Amino acid sequence: MTDTPSWQPPVAPGSTPASASPWTAPQSAPPTAPPLYAQPGGGQQGWTPPPKPGLIPLHPLSFGTILGSSFRVMRRNPAPTFGLSVLLYGIVTILYIGVLAGVIAYSFGRISAAAFDDQDAILAGSFGLFALASIVPIALTVVATGILQGIISLEVARATLGEKLRIRGLFRLAKGRILALVGWSLLLTAAVVVFLIVATAVTFVVFAGAGATFSSGNDAVLAFLGAFGALALVALGFGVLAAWLGTKLALVPTAIVLERLPLRAAMARSWSLTHRNFWRTLGTQLLISVIINVASSIVTYPLSLIGSVIIGLTNPGNDPTAAFVSIGVLYLIIGVVSIVVGSVGLVMQSAAYSLIYIDIRMRREGLDLELMHFVEARQAGTPGVGNPYEPRTTAPAPPTGSPWA
After folding, report:
1. Per-residue pLDDT at 280
2. What is the dihedral of CA 267, 269, 270, 276, to 10 degrees?
3. Count of domains forming the chain
4. H/E element holding 165?
5. What single DSSP character describes residue 37?
6. Is 202 part of a structural domain of the chain?
7. Which of 113, 151, 189, 193 is most buried, by the most CB atoms less than 10 A from its CB?
8. Is residue 20 one of the residues assigned to a domain?
């Protein structure tokens, strides 16, 4: 299921692992290497930096460490991170294009075949169908993002302990948690749909009021400026509410897979963990989103500009067929690049949530001691060490000989 860590001692002849659990340290002969924490000064008690067996050092993380480690997750193990993200993002993009293309083709076919007097009604119905069809890609995107965040959480958790997982190993660890992730994603989708319905209704009411004001003889400019101002205030309110709820519930997929909690308990757990860590969680995600959006613009905008120039130079006769083919190729290239950049962004954001979760638990619950205990027990071949990410009812005991004791 996992690639054997290079620094894990081999199992002694005749010994067997103590448990089939992927978190259980194997039983082996005591290592001949020096202990994990060497005491300098000729046996005197001294301090050494906390260990870094894998992705991050085992102590509370700084903002720079969280940001830098979010970039390193994909580079450290690209196949189950970037590869899975590209697969999910690509499937969602293809389905999105297919659904919208089908709706557009169907609508144009009905409009062209309808009588002139019926075309306005059919056009209005086509806009409604288009808006309804847009919900399907949104739902698929939310589901894919929720599943990916859960899978990346497992990768980050094991990378913290110096291990690498293949895609099969990740999904084996996530066994029994995928349905909970899908349930969480569907709950988010329902919230997005409700938001769209409410936003559409508010927009209709506001502009209907502006139209009524205009028809009564009042100034049209003032009426529509007031309408846009009201919509701006409503949008700001919805944005603040979405940012608050999104941040408070940002760690739900991580809690689902790492602590194996049911959905309701995972929501309560995320709400509790983000208490007094709201701004740090929100700021990290906003910064990563800005970085990804800027990188995407830097890549796609020059590509669109250069592609437009090339299309004009290679088709001086303005042949419609050649122009259609060239534009199709250009948008295909831009779509592929957008999928790659978007996949990188999804991995980084998912990894950042996982690192924030680990950092909060280190600060509040002594998770760093649990992780150090697990690493030392695995290195010493101590059997019966369970999942260090499961919450404890009592405080963890410091590892023997650790300067943190």
Report:
1. 85
2. 140
3. 1
4. strand 164-165
5. S
6. yes
7. 151
8. no
- Give residue 232's domain range: 52-365
- Residue 279 neighbours by CB distance under 10 Å: 10
Question: What pLDDT score was predicted for residue 127?
Answer: 67
- Residue 2 · residue 164 · CB < 8 Å: yes
Question: Residue by residue, what is the 3-state secondary structure of 330-385?
Answer: HHHHHHHHHHHHHHHHHHHHHHHHHHHHHHHHHHHHCHHHHHHHHHHHHHHCCCCC
Per the document, the length of the chain is: 405
Burial per residue of 36-63, b for 16 or more beta-carbon CB atoms within 10 angstroms, e otherwise: bbeeeeeeeeeeeebbebbbbbbbbbee
36 belongs to a structural domain: no
Closest to 350 in 3D by CA, of 55, 147, 76: 147
Q: Does residue 14 lie in a domain region? A: no
Pairwise CA distance, residues 23 & 36, whole Å? 20
Q: Do 172 and 21 meet the contact criterion of CB atoms below 8 Å apart? A: no
Residue 319's pLDDT is: 66
Which uninterrupted H or E stretch holds 266? helix 263-273
Tell me the pLDDT tens digit for each residue of 125-176: 666 666 666 777 777 777 788 888 888 998 898 888 888 878 888 888 888 8
Distance CA 127, CA 118 (A): 15
Residue numbers in the chain where pLDDT is lower than 70: 1-51, 111, 114-133, 206-224, 226-227, 311-320, 322-323, 382-385, 391-405
Tokens of 362: 């280190």
Q: What is the b/e burial string over 326-335, where b = at least 16 CB atoms within 10 angstroms of the residue's CB?
A: beeebeeebe
pLDDT at 360: 92
